[in-house]
Amino acid sequence: MRLSRRIYPGSIVDGTGEPDGPNWLVAEDDGTGTHRPRLNDWLSHAAEGILTDSSCDLRPRGVPTLPALNFYRAVELANGFHFVSVESGDWAFLDRGEFDSLRAGTMDCQLRRRLENAHVLLTSENIREYINRLRHRYRFLSEGPTLHILVVTPRCNLTCVYCQASSAPSRHGAMSEDLARKAVERAFETSASSLVIEFQGGEPLLNFPAVRAAIEHAKLLERETGKRVQFSLVSNFTEPATEDKLGYLIDANVSVCFSLDGPEDVHDANRGQGHAACHQAVLRTIGMFRRIWASRSQAPVELRAMMTTTRASLESADRMVQAYLAQGIDRIAIRPVTRLGRGRKAAAVSYSAAESSMRWLRPCVP
Ligand code: SF4
After folding, report:
1. Is the confidence at residue 210, as pLDDT, over 50?
2. Mean pLDDT, to the nearest integer, of 63-91?
3. Residue owning the nearest CA to atom 7 of ligand 1
4. Mean pLDDT, to the nearest integer, of 152-168?
5. Topology of the domain covering 144-364
6. For position 230, what pLDDT does the model report?
7. Which of 151, 175, 146, 150 is nearest to 341 (CA)?
8. Cβ(346) to ligand 1 under 6 A?
9. Cα–Cα distance for residue pair 360/43, rounded to 1 Å
10. How far apart, in Å, are the Cα atoms of 160 and each of 167, 264, 346?
C-alpha cells in the first residue's frame, strides 16, 4: 500500500460554476481496489474521541482539508459496475465511467451528491453524521456485547432447503428452562447497559417453556440490575405459532420476526418436501397476530418479516416486494443463503455475491 496526498485544485465540476473547485485528499490505488487516505487515521482518532465522550467537539486540531475522499473499498461486479462501500456501511453503486471519475477526482455535481450521501466524499456538512454512524456501528467495542442469541431447540416442523441449522421434525434436543435462566444470567454479565435477547432455533416456539422461562428471568434481572432488556424472536409463523403463545409474546413486548420468502410459489418451494401449504399457514398466522394485537393495543401493529434470498427471489425481485406490501409489511430483513447446514449443499438456490448485487442494486441506480 502506497499512501500519498495529492491535491487536485479545480478538478471537481461543482454546481456553482466556479473554475476552481475544492481541494481533495486522495490516495493512490495500490492495485487491490483499496484506497486508504491518511484521512482514515484522523477519522479513527475522531471516532475514538466520540466513543469516550459524546460531547467531543470534532472541529479542533487535526481536521484534514475538507471536502475529502474517504477510505473506501471497491468491488468490481459484472459489466464494469463497481460496488463502493465505506466503513460506516454506506455504499454506492457506480458504473465504469462514474468509478473512473471517482478515482480521477473529476466528479460532476450529480455524482458528487451521491458520493456525499454515501459518505464516500466527506464534507463539513456530512462528516459529523459519518462519525456518529461509525460510533454507532462500533459502540460494542466500548459497551460490551448487546445481542445474545438463545437457540432453544434445533427442531423445526419444516425442512427448508437452505436451513443453516439443518433443522427438521426429526431433530431432537431442547434447552431446559433451568439452562435458559442460566443463559440469561450469563447474558446479563455484559458490561453493556442494555441488551437484546433473541430466540432462534430451529423453531423456538416448539420449546416455548424455555422461551417463557428466559423472558421471565430476564425481566427479574432487569429490575435487579437496572440494565434494559429487549426481546426478539424469529419464527416460521406456521402451526407452532398458536394464539396463546402469540398473546404472551405481544404482552411481553417481544419483537417477532417471521420467515416469509415473498409470494406463495417462492415461499413454498423453499420449505422442503411435504410442506406445500406453508404460505397459506403464514398468512393465517399474520391475520391471527393482527387480531390479537388489536385486542391489546391501540398502536399500529408491528409486522417484521425476514426473507432468505434464493435464486428464485433474485429472479422475481418486483414480485417479492409486492408480496410483502400486499400483507401490509413494510419492514423486511433481507438475508442471503448462509452456506452452513443444508445451505451449504443448496447449490440450486444459491448464487454468487456479484449476481446478487447486480440483481438487487441495479434498479436502485438513478
Ligand atoms: S430455516 Fe427456519 S423455518 Fe426453515 S427449517 Fe430451518 S429453522 Fe425451520
Report:
1. yes
2. 84
3. 202
4. 93
5. TIM Barrel (3.20.20)
6. 97
7. 151
8. no
9. 31
10. 8, 14, 10
Select from 273, 356, 272, 365 the least CA-distant residue to 320: 356
Cβ of residue 158 lying under 6 Å from some atom of ligand 1: yes
Does the CB atom of residue 163 touch ligand 1 within 6 A? Answer: yes
User: What is the 158 CA–ligand 1 centroid distance (Å)?
Assistant: 6
Give the per-residue pLDDT at 65.
67
CB 324 within 8 A of CB 313: no
Which residues in 148-166 are b (16+ Cβ under 10 Å) and which e? bebbbbbbbbbbbbbbbbb
pLDDT at 351 over 80: no
> Does residue 165 have its Cβ closer than 6 Å to ligand 1?
yes
Gyration radius of the chain over CA positions: 24
Q: What is the pLDDT of residue 343?
A: 86
Evaluate if residue 217 carries a pLDDT over 90: yes
Q: Is 236 in the pocket of ligand 1 (CB under 6 A)?
A: yes
Atom of ligand 1 nearest to the CA of 156: 8
Regarding the beta carbon of 201 and ligand 1, being less than 6 Å apart is answered: yes
The closest residue, in CA terms, to atom 4 on ligand 1 is: 160
Q: What is the share, in percent, of the chain residues with pLDDT greater than 90?
A: 52
For ligand 1, atom 1, name the residue with the nearest CA. 163
* Residue among 65, 74, 77 at smallest CA distance from 36: 74
- Domain map of the chain by residue range? 34-137, 144-364
The answer to whether the CB of 343 is under 6 A from ligand 1 is: no
